[in-house]
Write a structure and sequence with these properties.
This protein is α/β, with parallel strands linked by helices. It is built from twelve helices and nine strands. 27% of the residues lie in helices and 13% in strands.
Length: 359
């Protein structure tokens, strides 16, 4: 986690008596911004206690308006999404400079989230798939976006697409982490109340429970050994029995509680979006261990057969946490020219060599 910045009661000192608030999205689906609206009538309290200075998904603010603010003018910035291009890095660094407190909002900002699964590939592979070989793509010339395009009206530019997806505290210091995909409305409301009243936990805190989801799960656990794994659409799970006992991968053993168990209430397995419990060195490895401990097999071949039934292990066990894991990404012997300075600075698996080396 990044080193914390300034704490304190946010609204003190501003002439309006209101919180000065920024909300920004990076590589995300927009669900975290919707979660802010999902607090329902509580949004009226937010309007009463906060002046929103930046919220691109909802209002027409300009980056220049934020650059013009004095440093630490924003009491708090909620930043959601992982970071994968130069514009996102530029703006979160700007918001860090302008903010007293930064909250990593949602799984992608906290742990990398689903966008970080792109770290299983490099940028060339991603571009080839998106602009070349995907079933819906018709692009015979294999055209890909250019950083600059000269048009009669002027030069158009695009941000640099980095080789690696980063979580927020890889780039800037973060005070608080509000997990979830998206964060539940109740936790969002509690965070707003804590910031408004100055009743804040220690910097570096995750604003959720510390126990594993399994500790509060009401389902009956028999600790049964498993000989067959199934995906949830292949069976009708018993709503009273532990899903792992039924051979359905559920990430409850390695995932922090605090979500309200919405997935379990819908008879669906936990996906792991609240991130690791405090004692877990790594969420994905803990889940691998949990699954390995319930496999039953008379010999190595049978154990391999059962384990092979787990579809997409990387996407299952590292769905939300690859950027925060010990794996982080696939090893890259060569980085790519654009963005290599950031990638090689933050990612030890990126080794620039030859013509693309940083000089």
């Amino acid at each position: 986690m990044g080193k914390p910045g300034t704490q304190g009661r946010p609204k003190e000192g501003h002439p309006s008596g209101k919180l000065q608030l920024g909300i920004y999205w990076c590589a995300s689906c927009g669900g975290c911004d919707i979660a802010v609206l999902d607090i329902n009538e509580k949004i009226l309290d937010v309007a009463a206690l906060a002046d929103i200075k930046l919220w691109p998904i909802a209002l027409d603010f300009k980056y220049e308006d934020v650059r013009a603010l004095p440093d630490k003018a924003l009491d708090v910035s909620f930043i959601n999404g992982a970071l994968r291009n130069s514009e996102q890095v530029e703006i979160v660094e700007l918001l860090r400079k302008k903010s007293k407190t930064v909250v990593a909002f949602g799984s992608c900002a906290c742990w990398g989230g689903i966008p970080a699964l792109a770290n299983l590939f490099d940028r060339n592979q991603i571009f080839e798939r998106v602009y070349g070989t995907s079933p819906s793509t018709v692009n015979p010339n294999r055209s890909v976006p250019a950083l600059e395009s000269r048009m009669p009206e002027g030069t158009l530019t695009l941000p640099t697409f980095y080789n690696t997806v980063y979580k927020l505290d890889d780039i800037i210091p973060v005070e608080y982490y509000l997990p979830g995909c998206p964060p539940p409305a109740e936790l969002v409301a509690e965070a707003v109340d804590a910031i408004a009243t100055g009743n804040l936990p220690p910097a570096g805190s995750v604003l959720a429970k510390e126990k594993a989801l399994c500790d509060s799960c009401p389902r009956e656990r028999a600790e049964k050994k498993v000989t067959t794994f199934r995906r949830v659409h292949e069976v009708q799970p018993d709503p009273d029995r532990c899903l792992l006992d039924q051979g359905i991968i559920c990430c409850g053993p390695a995932t922090r509680d605090g979500c309200g168990a919405r997935c379990l209430e819908a008879n669906m397995p936990c996906r792991g979006c609240f991130g690791p419990t405090p004692e877990a060195v790594e969420q994905g490895a803990k889940m691998l261990s949990a699954v390995g401990s319930i496999i039953e097999g008379r010999d190595e071949a049978e154990i391999k057969r059962v384990a092979a039934q787990v579809v997409d292990p990387a996407g299952t066990f590292y769905r939300f946490g690859l950027a925060a894991s010990l794996l982080h990404r696939s090893y890259q012997e060569r980085s790519l020219k654009e963005g290599v300075e950031l990638d090689s600075r933050l990612d030890p698996t990126v080794v620039p060599t030859g013509k693309e080396a940083v000089t």
